[in-house]
Amino acid sequence: MSPRAIDVLRQVAWVAAEDTRHTAPLLKHFGINTRMLAAHEHNEEAVAQQIVARLGEGKSVALVSDAGTPGISDPGARIVARVRAAGYRVVPLPGPCAAVTALSASGLVDSHFLFYGFLPAKARQREEALRPLAALPYALVFYEAPHRILETVATLSSVLGADRTLVLARELTKLFETIHACPLGEALAWLQADANRQRGEFVLLVSGAPPAADDGEGERVLRLLLDDGLPVRLAARLAHEITGAGKNRLYDLALGWKKADSSE
Q: What is the pTM of this model?
């Protein structure tokens, strides 16, 4: 908790909390007596109206969630949207974010990451959600609950490939914090070796897809685009996006073809 966050919670008229039973001990710890109202995923629309009404009365409201950042795979996004739509100011207070905390300690060297959040609970839907992500050259970031961790890791391995690196980060910033990296194909056995490793809230980070092998498809698509009259730079970029072949190599190849054609 930052000093600024503590000051805000003391000064506002209301604290909207995902679970008032969890937030009450936090407020008590800092000697804060602000009134609370419950704001969870099942009542977001109704509470948003209440919050907008209180703002209309000139009162201020703070929004907190149980163990994360509101609106980041936690309730709060609809409330923020309604408050902004009503013309009121929304002020973010920086705080812990599990995804970024895990990334900073993961050791993954991917230049970019894609935050997905929670995958679908049902096996078939989970596989369908993962397939479009399999070829992306970005680190993939998921959240998962302990009761689904084994089946989710098994699906990640089967869809994304056993050789990609998985970083399992559990109970971040808490007493039993664990950050373990291994090939996806070995992760299930690691989790099953100790039941304690399956406890707590998880962040799962998967290394980005390796560069696609050059099977000549990039050159074929490049030639078709050039034959259609596209400029070299645009044709190289599109061929790269379509096939995954190296953009710089395609560009150099196209330039070479152009020079050869002009010299004939």
A: 0.76
